[in-house]
Fold these 4 entries.
Entry 1:
Amino acid sequence: MNRGLAQFVKVWGLAIRPKTLFAAVTPVLLGTVLAYSHRHGAMPSAAAAFLGAIFIQIGTNLANDYWDAKKGADNENRLGPTRVTSSGLLSPSSVFIGMVIAFLIAALAGLFLISQAGWPVLVIGIVSIICGVLYTAGPFPLAYIGLGDLFAFVFFGPVAVAGTYFVQAREMSLEAVILGFVPGSYSVVLIALNNFRDRESDVVVNKKTLAVRFGDTFARAEIAVFCFIPAVIPFVLGFRGFSIPVAVACSSVAFIGGMAICRSVYKIRDKRAVNALFPRTGLVSVLVTILLSLFLLR
């Protein structure tokens, strides 16, 4: 790989934030595995759902990078990873075009899913893309008025899992909605960690996240609550056919992972240390998802 191409890949890798893509992949995996466990699995629809979810996540990341830079939320005081727009690594127009391309690819995947499962997919797709843009854009961006956490939970949780199940099974499932609480909770943990780390700089630009509105104590408590919700879900699923040993195994992994994240959050004094918790959260989310998937397919 020549130097120019290597630099291109490196910069766009920073832009799309590949370490966040597990938030798009895990709910689709759970929805697909559940569909196959009910003998409704359809690989073409599952592949299209994966493609759509990943590019909605990428589009949302690029939209966040672009509009946070325009609003001044990303500046020299930023504690998180480098943002490509504010740092000048990519021009604002390049990031904006990348965002449009990502959402167009997601829309193309959605067209196939609409042909397979009908108008409900159209509604889900349109709302997901609009919310992905409005997360940081518009006069009332979700992330700036304290609704980013709710968006993450709903669209990367129950909506993503139940939607993936629906495009394959052509019917809704309460189990899919319940399973959605697992990836949805870990998505909230990511948002809450981000807002906890950036609370001081967000105050300056009037970004009224929940951490800004209610303080660090609330932010730590929010992270703790959503770290442990996934440990409860296997027992809720026990009423839907999960055996107790299976529930205990899945819950134990979620609980131990949640404890590790929470202990770090409550010990942190230098908020730069929060950056190390993002990949750990991703790892816990993936481990819990794989364990749930294996037991669903047993």
Note: Residues 43-71 form the longest helix (29 residues).
Entry 2:
Amino acid sequence: MAASFPEIASRSQLEKIEPIVKEALAQAGVQLNDIDVIAVTSKPGLPGSLLVGVCFAKAIAWHCTNQLLAIDHLEGHVFSSHIEYNPPFPYLCLTASGGHTALYLVEDFGIFTLIGQTVDDAAGEAFDKISKLLNLGYPGGPIIEKLAAQANFEDYFTIRVPVPVNLILVFPG
């Protein structure tokens, strides 16, 4: 019997998590003992992938800091635009990630309201389907995002609308 996509994702994460963390530390020029708090996505998501990440983070926290911060995966997406941009509040945030597609009214940091969400396959899965049709590989989101960035689209993350609200589109890879 063939493995399911969630199982394949969990196995892949298990193989890649340590080398990715090592590379991130090397690029940042820090050691594990330099980190004060370990943050990890705790919900929602694929159970196997969450288990891999949470167990890995717990081990690091136990070894280094004893401080572990659980992060809601969807809240991370809602506020991820603030990493590179400074969008003014309030704004609408459309998240399309794997099995979650939702529209939020974001009023401030930590203050956001779910306006609506899909009840079937998420719009984020459309990237995987399009990528498969174009033979671009899996997962499709990062590949399509890279190609879109190479096309030099203006403001493809933030769209200003003629009302006092911005629309932030978040398509994480």
Note: The domain at 5-66 is CATH 3.30.420.40 (Nucleotidyltransferase; domain 5).
Entry 3:
Amino acid sequence: MKNTKLNPKKIFNGKLKPCIICKKKKFKNWARLNSFQAKKCLNCGMISVNPTPEQYFLDLYYEGYLEENKKDRKLWEQRKTTYQIDKNWISKFIDHGKVLDIGCSGGQFLSYFEPKRWKRFGVEVDEAAANNAKKKFGINVKVGNITDLDFKDKFDLIIMRGVIEHFSNPVSVFKKCSSLLKKGGYLYITATPAGDSFAFDVYRDKWHLFTPPGHLHFFTVQLLTRIVNQYGLELIDYHHQYTETPYANTLKDYMKIKNDIILLSSHKKEKVKTSPPFPGSMITAVWRKK
């Protein structure tokens, strides 16, 4: 990701947008980081960065992000473990067919979907990452925004892993996904930050998943379901991964959040660093097209 330093007036259009879920325009401030303000809808509870950054800024922000991510070797290795966990979870519902990974990056997650069982497709905004997926894993990848692209195929499974929270207009993405799914096909969202997370409520701007302009929207399973129900998808199952991941250290994480709550309640926020991994922070869920 580029460390883009732009005038805030060039990042935002300055206009407060209605809630993406219920279209109401009454909010309370939830968390702030630099020029980015997250607001919580007083009607439905959806939390989004509002105003939302302009799309041209987001496109610039994500140029070359794959190479940046690779620099953290420990995190890169941990991710490989979580890829297998996420693959195993969705395999309980579907284990073969045509799969489309939206925001497929360099193809790392799709590489866990065996070519003998899956016909693999991807969408990626960064051309360098897309080329990596093509050359290293032989994945058929289109470069661009999913809402602007056309496909001849209909899919048995559409994946968004750590992706939907990045879109400036995520509702349009769900509509597109529904149009691309076969009847009985599955929409799989995983590794997306949960807006109703206990840790987010405690830490707000110091929550480790509050990283605008990277993360813009903070859904709940219920709010995601409310959106996709409009496009003919029904919730099948969901889960909040924690103990099975390589990030979890139960005793250490619980002790840190306990101590940080004491500091925050004593008005010593300056002594609190970023939050630890914690139960309920990440959403994994699957919906099926009727």
Note: The chain has one domain: 8-289.
Entry 4:
Amino acid sequence: MKSCRRIPVRALLAVAVLFGAPARAPANDLTLRVVADSAERSALLHLPAKFDPRRYYPVVFGFHGGLGNAEGYIANSRLFDKAEAAGFVAVCPEGTPVIGNHRVWNSGSEYVRSSRGADDVGFTRALLNAVMTRVGIDRKRVYATGFSNGGQMDYRLALEASDIIAAIAPMSGATLSEGAEPPRPVPVMHFHGTTDTVYPFDGGLGPHSIGRTPHVPVAAVISQWVRFNHASEAPEILSHEGWQEQMHAGTTPVVLVLVEGLGHQIAGGTDDRLPGQALRDTPDSVELALRFFLDHPMP
């Protein structure tokens, strides 16, 4: 396995690592600050409790949903805990603020105005460089997951940053390529609920959708990535109680995890209506995503 070497801070990249998240050991949770696109941006970084400076770690980026923030996403997804259990370093960036600490990602044309045209692909690259000044990472194992608008950001990274992102696992958010094609196939594991009223599985606008732009059908996005990845058009269906995996097999697979009765939520995460309690009768989407990632390093 080839691993990266640590690199110096670039001339145009200012990095400050500060202690944060007082509920955790300060040595494990840090705030990264970088200058990207002439603006200071930040992300929360989690290192394993038994961090080994001699080891090269896989990295997972977790992107919060639209009008959310990194802290809320970490609480709902429990990404930091699950990433640590799986041996990952986790990075949760902060999007562009819209109102207070409610933030968005420039995941495509729909969000250019609300994100003020932020270069969030460049921001992700800058963050990866910042992480590499602090941690030894395995450059063949850098991944992206995210919820809703954050899931849409995953798809944009797969299109525009496939040189650094090995695979993606979007949750409850999708977007078409808008005419672009990825330079290489990128493994995809997409999670969606059948009763999502914010981003309906069949597309369009649901009763709780934000904004007036109809969403594209998830099936259309899956079909597009099946074509990009030269995967099997006919999926193999793996049924579980309350959910199923639709596996489009191939060297670079595309997997749709469809959860019966799940709304606009992170499957296996906590329920906003019942703070701190995990959703029942759903797969743990973050754990499944991390397993998928470990099976799909960069070629």
Note: The helical segments are 70-77, 79-86, 120-134, 149-160, 218-228, 285-294.
